[in-house]
């Protein structure tokens, strides 16, 4: 059992960020949750972010985490996904069993990306008596067996194929029945997915909907209407929320000044950045920092 840990004081100018372990094979690394720490590991109890995805498949026990300022408790049979860039830390673990699968973002096909990220935005409870659970455990057991074996010319491709089979299985479980969701917008889901990908890459530089529309070869009105129909929010709202989330991360876990954070996120005028932060969150950046650290 790991004891709960206090929030550490930020000591660097940025949130610690880690790439996939060199133990990974072809961009995939499976770990047994009974052995949370390995010699090559970073400190999972300290706030950090990864450049890769982490899919947690907990079968027994409990994990308590903090993910982007939200407490997350995983208990029993449950699925959880932590995406690249999300600031997270392990607070407590009690006899966890299951697997953690780290994998490079490039391995996640676009067809699955939004389904997985939206469907696993909160932990997903698993029923141990369903065919889905049995198949998922079988794939994970096979993936663990392949990873433990000697590497050969095709072992990396084998692990990638098993990962994709697992992600396909999960996506099929999360996605609504095709008949229950008519294709209301035609290309709407594809446009939203492309917009979300651009947003991840350019939110700190691109603040105007026209920049995203131009990159997608769409009119501003069409992009905005499509995104709003798909998500309930405008393009500008998505840009603001994504920017403010990153601002919270930097305010909470680094010693950067509000001015420096605003500049890093594309705002040359600190007053405007402060007003935007308050508009989205209801408090000033300074108040957020004090509340988080108190």
| Spatial separation of the terminal alpha carbons | 27 Å
Order of helices and strands: EEEEEEEHEHHHHHHHHH
Q: What would you give as the CATH superfamily of the largest domain?
A: Regulatory protein AraC
- How many β-strands, per DSSP? 8
- Rg, please? 20 Å
Number of domains: 2
Give the helix level as a range of percent.
Answer: 40-55%
The total count of helices amounts to 10
> Which regions contain 5 or more consecutive residues with pLDDT less than 50?
1-12, 179-185
Structural class: alpha+beta
Domain HTH araC/xylS-type: 193-291
Protein name: HTH araC/xylS-type domain-containing protein
Pfam families: HTH_18
Keywords: DNA-binding, Transcription, Transcription regulation
Structure report:
This protein is an alpha+beta fold and 294 residues long. It folds into two domains: 17-175, Jelly Rolls (Sandwich); 188-293, Homeodomain-like (Arc Repressor Mutant, subunit A), CATH 1.10.10. It has ten helices and eight strands. The strands form two sheets. Strands 2, 4, 5, 6, 7 and 8 form a six-stranded antiparallel β-sheet that branches. Strand 4 (53-67) and strand 5 form a beta hairpin. Helix 5 (209-215) packs across helix 6 (220-231) and helix 7 (235-253) packs across helix 9 (270-281). The longest helix is centred in the middle third of the chain and has 20 residues, at 155-174. The radius of gyration is 20 Å and the shape is globular. The two termini are 27 Å apart. Residues 1-12 and 179-185 have low confidence and may be disordered.
């Amino acid at each position: 059992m790991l004891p709960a840990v206090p929030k550490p004081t930020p000591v660097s100018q940025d949130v610690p960020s880690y790439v996939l372990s060199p133990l990974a094979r072809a961009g995939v690394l499976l770990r047994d949750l009974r052995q949370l720490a390995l010699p090559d590991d970073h400190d999972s109890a300290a706030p950090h972010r990864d450049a890769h995805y982490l899919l947690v498949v907990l079968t027994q026990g409990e994990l308590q985490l903090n993910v982007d300022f939200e407490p997350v408790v995983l208990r029993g049979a449950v699925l959880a996904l932590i995406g690249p860039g999300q600031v997270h830390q392990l607070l407590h673990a009690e006899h966890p069993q299951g697997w953690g699968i780290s994998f490079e973002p490039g391995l996640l096909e676009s067809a699955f990306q939004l389904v997985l990220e939206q469907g696993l935005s909160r932990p997903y409870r698993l029923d141990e008596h369903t065919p889905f659970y049995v198949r998922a455990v079988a794939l994970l057991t096979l993936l663990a067996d392949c990873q433990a074996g000697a590497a050969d010319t095709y072992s990396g491709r084998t692990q990638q194929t098993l990962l994709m089979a697992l992600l396909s299985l999960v996506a099929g479980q999360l996605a609504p029945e095709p008949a229950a969701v008519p294709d209301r917008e035609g290309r709407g889901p594809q446009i939203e997915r492309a917009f979300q990908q651009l947003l991840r890459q350019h939110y700190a530089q691109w603040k105007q909907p026209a920049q995203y529309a131009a990159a997608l070869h769409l009119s501003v009105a069409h992009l905005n209407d499509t995104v709003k129909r798909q998500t309930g929010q405008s393009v500008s709202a998505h840009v603001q929320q994504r920017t403010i989330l990153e601002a919270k991360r930097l305010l909470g876990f680094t010693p950067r000044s509000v001015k420096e954070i605003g500049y890093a996120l594309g705002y040359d005028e600190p007053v405007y950045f402060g007003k935007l932060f308050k508009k989205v969150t209801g408090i000033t950046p300074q108040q957020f920092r004090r509340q988080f650290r108190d």
